[in-house]
Amino acid sequence: MTSVFTRIVRGELPAFKLYEDDLTLAFLDINPAARGHTLVIAKPELPGLLDLPPELVAATALTTQRVARAIVAALQPDGFNIIQNNGAAAGQVVFHFHVHIIPRWDGDRSVKLWRPGTATADDLQVVASEIIAHI
Ligand code: AMP
Predict the structure, then answer these.
(1) Residue 37 CA: which ligand 1 atom is closest?
(2) pTM: predicted TM-score of the whole model, two decimal places
């Protein structure tokens, strides 16, 4: 199925485009969490981070930094979040790789990503070992 973002890449749907190169495209989110909320996509329709070949990981990271720099210069936020959802459980709705750049202003409370939990040193050691075994 063709994603909504592929249709933007093809020019079949409108978007407020900010930057484009051969591999990436940046445009404003249609339902922004904040003024200037931007999406950076990989042009090929790949669902998530783990599906990207190295050149697309690099290209989307570079475009994210480039556009974030422009957002900071233009809008002068107090900070910004970089968010990249993978899977429905993580809140992904459009299954075409994209990075959110969300400008933040002191006290805006527009994004809260997690509730801090607790873990023992043993818990941390066990999960660290599980992950390290796959690196
Ligand atoms: P995610 O939950 O990470 O999959 O986020 C998908 C994002 O895409 C949401 O923030 C939507 O507001 C945004 N979105 C969906 N359709 C469009 C569109 N046609 N133009 C711009 N942003 C869109």
Answers:
(1) 10
(2) 0.97
Any bridge partners for residue 17, and if so which? 27
Fold of 4-132: HIT family, subunit A (3.30.428)
Residues 25 and 19 sit within 8 Å (Cβ to Cβ): yes
Which residues surround ligand 1 with Cβ inside 6 Å?
4, 13, 15, 29-31, 39, 85, 91-94
Domain ranges of the chain: 4-132
Q: Scan for tokens 């899977």, then name that residue.
A: 87
Residue 106 CB burial class (10 angstroms; 0-12, 13-18, ≥19): exposed
The stretch 35-57 carries a mean pLDDT of: 98
Annotation marks residue 100 as catalytic: no
